[in-house]
Amino acid sequence: MYHFATVLSTLLASSLPASLAAPGTPSSPSAQNTAPFTPAGGIGTAANATPPVYHPLSDFDFQSMNLALNQEWIELDLFHHALAQFSVEEFEAAGINADDRFLIEFMADQEVGHATMLTNILGPTAAKPCNYTYPFTTVRGFVDFCQKLTRFGESGVYGFLEHLDSRPSAELLLQSITTEARQQMIFRQFEGLFPMPIWFTPGITQSMAWTLLSPYIAHCPAENPHIVFQNFPALNITNNPSAIPLINSSLENSTLPAITHNRSIPLSKPGFQLDLTWEKPGKITGYDGLYTTNTSAGPAQFVAWISQLNTTYTPLFNISADGTSGSTLQPGDLIFGNGSAPLINGTLFIAITDNNTFVTPFNMSLLNTHIVAGPAMYQSG
Ligand SMILES: *[C@@H]1O[C@H](CO)[C@@H](O)[C@H](O)[C@H]1NC(C)=O
Ligand SMILES: *[C@@H]1O[C@H](CO)[C@@H](O)[C@H](O)[C@H]1NC(C)=O
Ligand SMILES: *[C@@H]1O[C@H](CO)[C@@H](O)[C@H](O)[C@H]1NC(C)=O
Ligand SMILES: *[C@@H]1O[C@H](CO)[C@@H](O)[C@H](O)[C@H]1NC(C)=O
Ligand SMILES: *[C@@H]1O[C@H](CO)[C@@H](O)[C@H](O)[C@H]1NC(C)=O
Ligand SMILES: *[C@@H]1O[C@H](CO)[C@@H](O)[C@H](O)[C@H]1NC(C)=O
Ligand SMILES: *[C@@H]1O[C@H](CO)[C@@H](O)[C@H](O)[C@H]1NC(C)=O
Ligand SMILES: *[C@@H]1O[C@H](CO)[C@@H](O)[C@H](O)[C@H]1NC(C)=O
Ligand SMILES: *[C@@H]1O[C@H](CO)[C@@H](O)[C@H](O)[C@H]1NC(C)=O
Ligand SMILES: *[C@@H]1O[C@H](CO)[C@@H](O)[C@H](O)[C@H]1NC(C)=O
Ligand SMILES: *[C@@H]1O[C@H](CO)[C@@H](O)[C@H](O)[C@H]1NC(C)=O
Ligand SMILES: *[C@@H]1O[C@H](CO)[C@@H](O)[C@H](O)[C@H]1NC(C)=O
After folding, report:
1. What does the alpha-carbon distance between residue 207 and residue 258 come to, in Å, rounded to a whole number?
2. Which backbone phi and psi does 218 adopt, to 5 degrees?
3. What is the whole-number distance in angstroms between the Cα of residue 176 and the centre of ligand 4?
4. Domain positions in the chain
5. What is the pLDDT of residue 34?
6. What is the Cα–Cα distance from 229 to 64, expressed in whole angstroms?
7. N or C: which end of the chain has fewer CB within 10 A?
8. If you measure from the C-alpha of residue 7 to the centroid of ligand 9, how many angstroms do you get, rounded to a whole number?
C-alpha cells in the first residue's frame, strides 16, 4: 500500500505555494474582515455583496453550460433507453438485479433535475432533448458505455467550471456534477471494476468533451443553439482493454457487479502497447450534418495522457505514411513520485498531439490547438 504519512509530508512541503504553507497567516496585514467570524477575502460573501444571479454572464458561460445540458439530456435518454431495451433476464444474467435497476431509474430522475436546473439558468434558448444513437447491444456494453459517458461528462464540466464568469451558476453546476460523479463510480461497480482507482479526477476542455459526445447525437430540434466548440478528428484505440466480458469466477478475476473487487489482474500495465488509428479532418459528425471535424495541429508526434492532475506525453512510433495510425506505450509515472499512485489508471483520456506542450489543469485549453485527433477513452483499469 501507499505510505501516506511519508508521502504526504514530503509532498505538502514541496508542492504547496508558500502562502498556503502556514495556515492562519493573513494574506495581507491590511485586509479587513467583512463580518464577525468571517475571514477577510473570498468573493461574494460580504453582507452587502451583490445578490447572486444564476445566469450566464458571457457567451463562454452560455456555450459551456449548454454543452453540459446536451450531456444531461443524453444521460436521461440513455438510462431510460436501456431499461426499456433489455429484458429482466438480460439484466439478471449480467448481475444487475431489481434494486440495481431502480437505482438506474433514479439516476434518470437525477438527470431530469440536472436538465431542469441548467434550463432555468440558460433560459428559453436552452437546448432541448435530441435523438441519440448508441454503440451497445448488451447490458454489459450499456454499463461500460455509461461509465465512459459519465466520465467525459464529469471531466468536461471540471474543465470549464472554474473558468465561468458566473460563479453563482458554477455553484449550482458543481452541485449537479458531484452527483454525476457518483453515477460514474456506480457504473464502474456494476462492471465489476475497482470503483475509484485514481486520486484525482481530471478535467478536459469543452472541445474534447464535444468531440467525445457528438457522435452519439443523431437529430435535434432545429432551434437548438449551434455548439461552437471544436470537433477534433476521431481517435480509436484498436486494442483498448475491455471489462465488458462477464467473468464469473475468482475474486481476483471477477467482473460481476460488486462494491469492489481486489483486482490483482489489472486491465493494462505500464509498457502496454496501444495501437491507434485516427481520422483526417473534414468528416461530418454530430447531429443533422451540422458539424465537421477540424484540427489546427501539425503532424502527429505524441500521445497526450490526460489523467489525475496531469497531462503527460509519450512518443508515437510506427506512424503510417499517411499519418493516421501509430503506436505508443503506456507510461509508468507515479503521480507524486515514489510511494504515490500510478498516473494511469481507471477510465482516462488520450489524444494525438503535434507537440508535448506542458499544460496544467487550469490552462488545459492551450492544448486544443495541438490536438491532431481525439481524445479517446482509454480503459486502463
Ligand atoms: C455465477 O456462477 C455461479 C456458480 O456457478 C452461479 O450460481 C451464478 O448464477 C453465476 N452468476 C452469473 C451472474 O452468471
Ligand atoms: C426523434 O424520433 C422520433 C421518433 O422516431 C420523432 O418523432 C422525432 O421527430 C425525432 N426528433 C428529432 C428531434 O429528430
Ligand atoms: C476501433 O477499432 C476496433 C478494432 O479494429 C474496431 O472494432 C472498432 O469498430 C473501431 N471503432 C470505431 C469507432 O471505428
Ligand atoms: C484469472 O485469470 C487469469 C488470466 O486469464 C488466469 O490465468 C487465471 O487462471 C484466473 N484465475 C482464477 C482463479 O480463475
Ligand atoms: C487486497 O489487496 C491489498 C493490496 O494488495 C492486500 O493488502 C489485501 O490483503 C487484499 N485483500 C484481499 C481480501 O485479497
Ligand atoms: C489500478 O488500481 C487498481 C486498484 O487499486 C490496482 O489493483 C491496479 O494494480 C492499478 N493498476 C496499475 C497499472 O497500477
Ligand atoms: C477548419 O476550420 C477553419 C477555421 O474555421 C476553416 O478555415 C477550415 O476550412 C476548417 N477545415 C475543415 C477541414 O473543415
Ligand atoms: C506498424 O504498423 C503496421 C500497420 O501500419 C503494422 O502492420 C505493424 O505490425 C506495426 N509494427 C509494429 C512493430 O507495431
Ligand atoms: C502531476 O501533477 C502534480 C500537480 O501539478 C505535480 O505535482 C506532479 O509532479 C505531476 N506528476 C507527474 C508524474 O508529472
Ligand atoms: C524512487 O525509487 C527508485 C527505486 O527505488 C530510486 O532509484 C529513486 O532514486 C527514487 N526517486 C526518488 C525521487 O526518491
Ligand atoms: C512544444 O512544447 C515544448 C515543451 O512544452 C515548448 O517548449 C514549445 O514551445 C512547444 N512548441 C510549440 C510550437 O508550441
Ligand atoms: C500552463 O501553466 C503552467 C503553470 O501551471 C506553465 O508552466 C505552462 O507553461 C503553461 N502552458 C502553456 C502552454 O502556456
Report:
1. 34
2. -95, -55
3. 40
4. 59-196, 235-379
5. 64
6. 9
7. N
8. 13
